Amino acid sequence: MSEPSVTAYPHLSNASLDTTICVQPVDEYGQTREGYISAERPLTIYLDKREILTLMTMGSQPELLVLGWLRNQNLITELAQLKAIQVDWETESVAVTTFQGVEGLDEKLGRKTVTTGCGQGTMFGNLMDRLDQLQLPAVTVQQSQLYDTLHALTEYNEIYRRAGAVHGCALCAGTDILSFVEDVGRHNAVDSIAGYMWLHGISGGDKLFYTTGRLTSEMVIKVAQMGVPVLLSRSGVTEMGLELAKKLGVILIARAKGRHFLVYNGVERVVFDAMPRRVEADA
């Protein structure tokens, strides 16, 4: 078999599904109401006919989710390795086929870490050994830019407003929201964006990554692998997430709502150019 071209792209199915389901719950008065809940579906990954694991996802962008997951797990490092990613919802499975297999697959799959991601994420291989190879640009962030980005993001979170029970993640270039994904777990959303970046050749060095979820070790690792130096969340930070941000040089900003935020790492690279007026307590 001839070597695949370095410019080759895998053949992707187009198996997106509706992300919400109409239901009729009964309220505290015994009355039936119509509303929506977030879809949640199992999707089992088969890599060259070998079962790897099952993801729980809404199914909005399953091909990008699997593509980003493969990259973030370091199972696939070049697009040219992939022949196809085919999702079949009737069997609740996705068939990933490569041209020449995955070198060292048994060893990579033998080292598994269950993370603290919503619904529990799983990371394979010796991730910690690879972190020393990551180098992020030493960018600066303006406070005014953070506010502008947060304002631009208010137009998103559509599924959350309609049905709840989801996390959202976004890749931002200033106020331009390049990709916004909602899923049942933030690790799914970040993997979908990683797949989007990889497929379209988008670099992360001048981007900001936003998530509605906690900034855990998994989130910091995945965003750093995507080459994004700024991580912003409306939620909190875990101890290991902070330790890894310091090690990798990720600017870590959390509890970002309205005009409020907390810089946990990289404060020396944040320009405070739009500090809100302090509200003085009544005497």
Automatic annotation (TrEMBL):
Chief localisation class: cytoplasm
Organism name: Thiothrix lacustris
HAMAP family noted in UniProt: FdhD
Subcellular location(s) of the protein: Cytoplasm
Lineage: Bacteria, Pseudomonadati, Pseudomonadota, Gammaproteobacteria, Thiotrichales
Described purpose of this protein according to its UniProt entry: Required for formate dehydrogenase (FDH) activity. Acts as a sulfur carrier protein that transfers sulfur from IscS to the molybdenum cofactor prior to its insertion into FDH.
The protein's name: Sulfur carrier protein FdhD
Family: Belongs to the FdhD family.
Superkingdom, natural source: Bacteria
Stored SUPFAM superfamilies: Cytidine deaminase-like
Active site per UniProt: C118 (cysteine persulfide intermediate)
Gene encoding the protein: fdhD
Keywords: Cytoplasm, Molybdenum cofactor biosynthesis
